[in-house]
Amino acid sequence: MQFWKLYKVPLLLTCVSFFLYGLFAYDLVRTDYTKLIVLYSLLWVVFLLLLKYAKNNIKFLSIVAFISRAIFILAIPNLSQDFYRFIWDGRMILEGLNPYLYLPQSFIEAGGELPVAEAEALYAGMGELNGSHYTNYPPINQLCFVIAGLFSGHTILGAAIVLRLLIIAADFGTLVFGKRLLKHLNLSEKNIFWYILNPFIIIELTGNLHFEAVMIFFLVWSLYLLHIGKWKWAAVVFAISISVKLIPLLFLPLYLFWFKKTSNTRSIDFKKLLSFYIIVGSITLVLFAPFFSLEFVNNYAQTVGLWFQNFEFNASVYYVAREIGYLFRGYNEIAVIGKVLAILVFLIVIGLAFFRRKTETQHLIITMLFAFTIYLFLSTTVHPWYIATLLILSVFTNYKFPLVWSFVIILSYLAYIHLNKADKSENLWIIALEYIVVYSVFIWEVFIKKPTQKELAPS
Questions:
Q1: Rounded to whole angstroms, how far apart are CA atoms 375 and 373?
Q2: pLDDT at 434
Q3: Which among 200, 170, 185 has a CA at the least distance from the CA of 361?
Q4: What is residue 268's DSSP assignment?
Q5: pTM (predicted TM-score)
Q6: Residue environment code for 442-457, b if the CB has 16+ CB neighbours within 10 A, otherwise e
Q7: CA pair distance 339, 222, nearest whole angstrom
Q8: Ramachandran angles phi, psi of 313, nearest 5°
Q9: How far is CA 318 from CA 49, 308, 334, 399, in A?
Q10: pLDDT in tens, 54-82
């Protein structure tokens, strides 16, 4: 009876949450925009209420977080098609074929015997755009796809279940090492639930099978190892994180002033710094080695380049620059603007590396947060799941603009709402609403809020 009195509200909220996740997983079509927004908003309300009424029970919140993920086990992702390509790549490797050298489209168009089981269904699922480009998923990501193929080589749902179990396992690792790092930083362990229990994370990573979850696990683990002084192992784990998703490459320059000869000097210990970079570089190259060829290098560089010169989705600064380009040139100059923005990101990250002279772990994480924020603000393409990395970094800081973004990012799924269904261009008013909210909170927190925030800013 006492238990019911203590947990009556959290248990009721949990039941509502599970019901909503069930609807989201099994009774939602992406184009049903009203239902999408309503379900997502209600899940956020329940999420915030759970944190309010059960915030002191870490075990209870952890159980709720992982049962919420388990609800998606038998679901086919309904907001993303990428997982079809994951399954294709894994089955290609199991057939002895290098997935970096072949286009799914070329097999379909050639006819004849197809290389993998359910090839036509997988190609139809991934779509022509995905199938006409070379894969860009790094080797540890490919290993996950292979595991799915090993355990389920002939059913799409079976492969999706295996991929989902790997992502859930990664989230558990993030919970474990995230709590440890928070404790070492003298921050509340409950902060981790802004990530682990967040509906955005549960839906985008577990639900839609995006492997940012695995990359984030290795990134958090690496930061924890670095904090406790095991920098060599931190370098190894950091390289594995890069080999899941390339995003951590952006953070490498920020380690420049981490290794100092003594804690009270600005003199860099170049021996340790160089050793760290050599370990990261060597492990990364070793992991890519089984796929290496000149053709692989060309295909991979070409595919990565598409994100800066061809693809555009849910951007902010880039869309403004594009409109200015239209005024002066009369056409879209993404090839030029994309390159300029990429160079600008690089220069800003290098600038952050040189101006961040403190060696505390939290300052390093905050600099990573700012670096990745700038990257997203200047990107030509910002898919919803990209925000996951920003969110996990914010857990170790006082900044909440990534949390706000993880809520309003749902608007990016509405970008193609038009009265004229033939119009496939994005609705810029919806995108503008998203970024007005995000930039407003960002500016308030970074430039206007009380000095307690500024004390954490890079210096």
A1: 5
A2: 97
A3: 185
A4: B
A5: 0.94
A6: beebeeeeeeebeebb
A7: 31
A8: -165, 130
A9: 37, 10, 8, 24
A10: 877 899 999 999 999 999 999 999 999 99
